[in-house]
Specification:
The chain has about 290 residues and is of the alpha+beta class. The chain contains six helices and 17 strands. It folds into two domains: about 170 residues, Probable tRNA modification gtpase trme, domain 1 (Gyrase A, domain 2), CATH 3.30.1360; about 70 residues, Elongation Factor Tu (Ef-tu), domain 3.
């Protein structure tokens, strides 16, 4: 990621939540603590099933009297419907602003050149009323700008940013072990805590109840975490199966089959070895170990 590069995330969408009950409404649903989100701090969070399985993940950014939810565009409409199911009588307005606002990414180094910026994951500043924030999951993922589409290119020019290939950004994200593409493939198949959300600052074990909290806390407190989501690097061949083997032992299952694949892998020490070659159908592959685990 070059210092002055900018990535236009056309595959990201934005919901905007506001209203008299908005903070309490969000707090009762998400894995993180909405109290952390201020004009100077953003956060990463997820919405789980009552059983603690993954449904959606998103970044939460304070904006005016409400909150932006930055999520994968494929999930915007399903997330909108899910939130409305929970809305009931809550005085909350939920808007899909994906056609009016856009998300852009930039380097960590560029973010630190801005006035009042701080080297803190999630730290948020304003540029002409638009939020720019250091990714709350991992600072190596850089920073994000949320801006009205009509102002985008003028602002990028004033910030002296040059448009770069978004594939470069997602290749970096894959290398760092953070899944951001086709995460709908994870829905109802994997516990939120197995997605490494604790390590990516997406779960707060000190906040009150939320959807899926009971199983999430039980796995954590009883040390029952036996699988994790890992990025997969294909060494040779084409994937023609979902099951992943080390010799004759099945050790995992491929869940995201995009150009940047991810798999749920057993993490017992006697099985997991990041140096060894695994197989998935006719493909040979390696499991990538992120430095934050």
């Amino acid at each position: 990621m070059k210092k002055d590069d900018v990535y236009i995330f056309e595959n990201r969408g934005l919901l905007y939540l506001n209203g008299e009950d908005v903070k309490e409404f969000i707090q009762n649903l998400i894995t993180n603590d909405i109290e952390k989100v201020t004009n100077e701090m953003s956060c990463f969070a997820a919405l789980l099933t009552p059983q603690g399985k993954y449904l959606f993940d998103f970044l939460i950014i304070k904006h005016k009297t409400g909150y932006f939810l930055d999520c994968e565009k494929k999930n915007v409409d399903p997330l909108f419907r899910q939130l409305n199911l929970y809305k009931l009588r809550s005085r909350v307005e939920i808007l899909n602003l994906s056609n009016e606002f856009v998300v852009a990414g930039m380097s960590y180094e560029k973010f630190l050149t801005f006035k009042n910026s701080k080297d803190i994951e999630g730290f948020t500043i304003k540029y002409r009323e638009d939020p720019i924030f250091l990714d709350p999951r991992l600072k190596k993922l850089g920073a994000r700008l949320i801006i009205n589409l009509e102002k985008l290119y003028l602002s990028l020019k004033k910030l002296k940013l040059k448009t770069a290939s978004v594939e470069d950004y997602y290749n970096l994200s894959h290398k760092l072990g953070v899944s951001q593409i086709d995460n709908f493939e994870l829905q109802n198949k994997i516990f939120g805590i197995e997605c490494n959300f604790e390590e990516l600052n997406g779960i707060d074990f000190k906040k009150g109840c939320y959807v899926g909290q009971e199983n999430t806390a039980r796995i954590k407190l009883k040390n029952k975490l036996s699988k994790r989501l890992f990025a997969i690097k294909i060494i040779e061949g084409n994937i023609s199966s979902e099951k992943i083997f080390l010799e004759d032992n099945e050790v995992g299952k491929l869940l995201i089959k995009s150009n940047n694949p991810f798999a749920l892998i057993k993490i017992q020490k006697e099985i997991l070895d990041f140096e060894k070659i695994y197989t998935c159908g006719k493909a040979k592959l390696k499991i990538l170990k992120p430095d934050w685990i």
